[in-house]
Automatic annotation (TrEMBL):
It comes from Paenibacillus solani. It comes from the Bacteria. Pfam families: DUF1569. Gene3D superfamilies: dinb family like domain. InterPro entries: DinB/YfiT-like, DUF1569. This is DUF1569 domain-containing protein.
């Protein structure tokens, strides 16, 4: 399974981000391209430990049972719900958000697994650094497919 800690997988993601255009439209979902980029940046902050959110009650109940969805080769289903605090609704600037996300991905990859957060994921709970690396790749892949790249 692909993992953002693998430089080849990181480069693939960065190349795909570079293929995005300001007028790219989602194939599903409500966020526009700049909002999606900001959403992905917020998720990077979560994985880096720059932001934390309390566990949701539903995550506490079923998170550990659905956690295997994070680290398998199946794509994330379209329109899967997200952490409410990571939904971006305000207007954002495409080029700025694109560059911010790319820099966060590069930093996360360079910092390596040892600097990955130890805080639990708000839904899935405790993740190993390897699980975070797979989760980050899979999350980015999901949203890049959402916008056709």
């Amino acid at each position: 399974m692909k993992n953002i800690f693998n430089p080849l997988n990181t480069n693939e993601i960065l190349d795909r981000i570079d293929q995005l255009r300001p007028d790219s439209h989602p194939q599903w979902g409500k966020m526009d391209i700049a909002q999606m980029l900001a959403h992905c940046s917020s998720f990077q902050d979560l994985a880096m430990g720059n932001s934390t959110y309390p566990r949701s009650w539903i995550g506490i109940l079923i998170g550990k049972f659905v956690k295997p969805l994070v680290y398998n080769d199946k794509p994330i289903p379209k329109n899967m719900s997200t952490i409410p605090t990571l939904i971006i609704v305000d207007q954002r600037e495409f080029e700025e958000e694109k560059e911010i996300l790319k820099q966060k991905i590069i930093m996360f990859q360079r910092n390596g697994p040892e600097k990955c957060t130890t805080h639990p994921h708000p839904f899935f709970g405790k993740l190993t650094s390897e699980q975070w690396g797979k989760c980050i790749y899979k999350h980015l892949d999901h949203h890049l497919k959402q916008f056709g790249v």
